[in-house]
Amino acid sequence: MKKRFPLVAILTALFAASFFIVPLIATFYFSLKMVRGELGFAAYASVFGSAAFLQTISYSTVASLIAIVIGAVIIVPTAYWVRLKVPHLRPVVEFISLLPLIVPPVVLVFGYIRLFGSSSWLPLTTTATGTDILLVIGYVVLSMPYMFRAVDNGMAAIDIATLTEAAESLGASRLRTIALVIFPNVRAAIISGAFLTFSISLGEFVLASLLNRPAFGPYLVQLGQDRAYEPAALAIMAFGFTWACMALMQLFATRKPGQRWLPRLTKPAAQRTTP
Amino acid sequence: MTFLSISNAVKTFGSNTVVKGFDLAVDKGEFVSFLGPSGCGKTTVLRMIAGFERPTSGRIMIDGRDVTDIAPNKRRIGMVFQAYALFPNMNVAGNIGFGLKIAGMGRAEIDARVQEMLDLIGLSHLAERFPYEMSGGQQQRVALARALAPKPQVLLLDEPLSALDAKIRVSLRSEIREIQRRLGITTVFVTHDQEEAMSISDRIVVMNGGRADQIGTPSEIYNRPTTRFVANFVGTLNTFDVTVVDPGRGHVSLEDQALMLHASPLSAKAGETLSIALRPEALRLGRCDTHEATLPARIEDVHFMGSIIRLRVMMAGVSVSLDTFNRPDMPTPLPGSMIEVSLSGKQAIVLRG
C-alpha cells in the first residue's frame, strides 16, 4: 500500500517551529543591520572588540568551570553512595536536589548576603574573592538539579552495585573503585551535567548582579539597556553556544567506550563478528 | 584437608533470619555447589564467603585464616557474577588485567598473565574488544578469566550460567569444570539448576530455609536423599504410602504386593504407614522378573522427550511419572490405555522429615 504524505503533520510541525524560528531569524536579521543601508557583521565585531565582553565572558567561564568541578566532586560520590548504601533515601536526596528549582535565586542570594555579610562570623561578602566564592557556590546550587539528575541517570544505566562488588573482589578499595570503575562509566553523564551547568551559569543574572560580580549575565542586561544591535548579536551567539553545548552533550552521551570520534575513512580490514 | 570452612554461620536482615546455622568444610581443589530454591540462602552464604555480607554470628576460615571480619578486597577471592559485571569502560585485556593492576604488578607481568588467561579461555583474538561487542558466553568467559587472573585462593561462582541460552550453558559449564580441574582451585558454585549442579560438582549442598538439608556427592543426593525436601527438589519423585510388615527386614506392602526395602531396619513399627519414593526411571513399563511387585496402571498423559518417553500414569491411587526409552520399533503408549508397571523395593527411597 502506498504511504500517504504526512502533510498535516508537517504543517503542524512547521507552525510550531515557526514560534521559535521566526523570532530567531528576525533577531539575526536585525543584528546584521548595524551599519545603515547594508547587511554585515559589524554588531558581532563590536561585541568581540569590547574589552568588557571579553572580561565578563572570561570571568563567567572560569566561575562556571570551577562550579562544574565542585559540583561533580560533590554530586558523583553522593549519588553513588545513595544508590549503593541508602537506596531508600534516594527520593529524599532527589527532592533536595530539586530545591533550587523551587526556591528562587533571589531568596538564595539574600540568604547568602545575610549569612555571610559583614556582621557574619564568616564575612565573605566583604572581599572580592569571598564574593567570588559565594557566586561559585551559588552556581553549584543552581546546577544541582541538572547535575544530580544527569549523574543519577548515568548510574542507573550501569549496575553500580555489582560493578563495585566485582572491583572489590579483585582487590580494589572503595576509592579506587570510584576512580577506576564508577567515574569512567558515568563520565558521559557528568559531561552532560557539566554542559548544562555551563550553559546555565554562563548567562546567570540574579546571583551575579546581586553579589555585584563582573559576570556575563549582568553585562548582557546592561548592554540591552544601552545598545540596540549588539544585544541581538549576543542573543544569536548565546543561542548558538547553547546548541553547541547540547550537541556536544549528545556526542558524549551516545559515544561507547573505544568508539572512534569520527567514522573511518577507509574500510576496515576485517568485519567484526560475534559468534 | 579443609581449606574453606564455614562454622555455624547465621545471617539476619532485620527480623528475617536468612541463614540459620550453616556449617560446611570444603577441601582444597574441591568443587562444591549450593543448590536450592529461591530464597533458601545460598547466595547469602556465598556473599558471606566473599565478604559482601558479614555474618550475624559464626566464623569463616580460608586456608587457616579467619576472614570473617576482613574486607572483600583483602580476602583473595575471585568472583563471577550472574550479570557478568565486566567493566564497560575497559576492553577484554583491561578487564582481565584489572586485578593485577590493583595488585601493583608491572606492565610486562600483567601482559603475560592476561595472555595466559586469554589462552585459557580461548579468546586471545578478542583482547581488544569491549564488553558490548561480545556475546553473553564470551563475556562470561572473560569474567571467569578476570576472576582467575590474580590467582585467588577461592573461586566463587554466583549463578554464572543463568543468563545464557541452553546450549552455551551446557558447553560453558563443562569448560568451567575443566579449567577448575586444571588449576585445582577451590570453587563454590551457586545454582538453582539441579542438572547443572549434578553435572559439575564434587559435592552438592542442598539448601532449604537457610540450612544445609543434605551435603553429599551428586550420586548420594540423587539416589539417597535423606529428607523429603531433598528427594522432592532433586529430580522427579513418585511417593507412595506403604504399610510396614516386618521393620527388621525392611518388608513393606503396597496394594497387597510385597516390597523389600534397601534401608532396614525401618524406624516405623509393623502395621504403621511409611512414605517411600521412586524415581521415574525406577518404574518399569510391563512385567519384569527383577522387580518384585507389578501393579495395574492407566496412562493419563504421554510426553515425548526424544530419547525417552515420560508417561503420567495413575497407579495405587497415586498419579506418578514413569520414564521409558523411546523405541521406534514399538508403538508409542496412548493416553487412556491400561498397562502394568513393575517396581522394586531396592530402588525405593524411604522418606523422613
Give your account of this protein's structure.
The complex is a heterodimer of chains A (275) and B (353). Chain A is an all-alpha fold and 275 residues long. Mean pLDDT of chain A is 87; it is low at 268-275. In chain A, helix 3 crosses helix 6 (128-156) and helix 3 runs antiparallel to helix 9 (187-202). The radius of gyration of chain A is 23 Å and the shape is globular. Chain A has a single domain (20-254), classed as MetI-like fold, CATH 1.10.3720. Chain A has twelve helices and no strands. Helices cover 73% and strands 0% of the residues of chain A. Chain A has helices spanning 7-31, 42-49, 51-84, 90-102, 105-115, 128-156, 160-169, 174-185, 187-202, 206-210, 216-226, 229-254. Chain B has 353 residues and is of the alpha+beta class. Chain B has two domains: 2-232, Rossmann fold (3-Layer(aba) Sandwich); 236-350, RNA polymerase II/Efflux pump adaptor protein, barrel-sandwich hybrid domain (OB fold (Dihydrolipoamide Acetyltransferase, E2P), Beta Barrel), CATH 2.40.50. Chain B has helices at residues 42-50, 92-102, 107-121, 136-148, 166-183, 194-200, 218-223, 228-233, and strands at residues 2-13, 16-27, 31-35, 57-62, 65-66, 77-80, 154-158, 186-191, 203-208, 211-216, 238-246, 251-254, 257-260, 273-278, 284-285, 293-304, 308-315, 318-325, 338-343, 349-350. A six-stranded mixed sheet of chain B has the order 6-7-8-3-9-10, with helices on both faces. A five-stranded antiparallel sheet of chain B has the order 13-12-11-14-20, with no helix packed on it. A five-stranded antiparallel sheet of chain B has the order 15-19-16-17-18, with no helix packed on it. Chain B starts with a strand and ends with a strand. The mean pLDDT of chain B is 91. The interface between A and B is medium-sized, with 25 and 37 residues.
